[in-house]
Predict the structure of Major facilitator superfamily (MFS) profile domain-containing protein.
Amino acid sequence: MAAPSSDDSHATSWRPRGNVLALAAVSFLTDASSEIIAPLLPLFLVGTLGTSVRMVGLIEGAAEAVAAVLKVASGWWSDRVARRKPLIVAGYTVASLVRPLVAVAQSGTQVLAIRLVDRVGKGIRGAPRDALLAAAVPASLRGRAFGFHRAADHAGAVVGPLIALVCLHALGLTVRQLFWVAAIPGALAVLVAVLFVKEPPRIVPARTARDSGATAAAVATPPLPRSYWRGIAPMVLFTLGNSTDAFLLLRASQLGVATSLIPLLWVAMHLVKSASSTPGGALSDRIGRRPLIVAGWALYAAVYAGFALAEAPWHAWALFAVYGAVFGLSEGAEKAMVADLVQPAQRGTAFGWYHGVLGLAALPASVVFGAVWDAYGSATAFGMGAALALVAAAWLSLTPRPSAANASP
């Protein structure tokens, strides 16, 4: 019998520690590294390398598609090997090594290759990391743990652009030199993952345990329950209306927000995301996952309707702030619900499908949104997104509640 993990605990006190704190620190550093580069990458591609806007879309779309597919595979595999940590460390290491190489890229094709390998790292680590995080706390604190992790991730998205701002304007670095700076928080993220993320004992299937040399107890891994797929289906519909945030920035520019203020608008949004994620996740522990997710999606619909009707720059600032709260309400609750709906031995697979299906759904979401914007205008496109969010919220609120057997601790 494997030693009991923190899944067996029923403590109700909360203080982020152990894997919760370690994984949050890793995500904070990784996102800081990524966001040093991400806001400047489109300008670098078009302005410095001379690529087309279509190539920019191809690079990002292909990168996210690769990550989505790999998340399914890595989640499935992490349920069948004795340790998830090697996959997590490998994923962060691959991304941290390759991401700064954008600094030496001479063509859009080279950037595409770098971004693909970067997203391979993300695809490898995502589902095993979330499964390990779910195992770090009892079910009664799961929403708060995922909310805290998302808060750290969004805090990194605040720090990264601020580092870029200081390096470019105060230190006088070039964009290529700045991209090398991204290697520093990336390396620190890998170091924290290696030293501080711990692997709790757990049960794995017998054949895989023998193959990997593990001594874990042998059990069969059952298929994901129907309640899991009933919970995921409305999320897919919501994602089809949740296009890339680049369209929000474009709309803000239309409303008269100065180009020089766009990065500050982005930082402000992530500040709200970070501040609201832990309280939102904690609230889902008290009143349930579904009410928080439904409320978040309804608020999303209101924000998108607001963008459709907005007429002044201050409208954009207000809507971006409220938009950040959407993620505080829904992100931690969504991940906690995924963990609630399956048994511990299935969590890698469950998070793999969650990330993979939603990642693939995000691709047509942005393509269709952009096509509708071009054909009928921004108001129609944002109205479409709002409508899909409302339908998804209604669908999730009407799905049958899962049985207690599936809501494992």
In short: The chain has 16 helices and no strands.
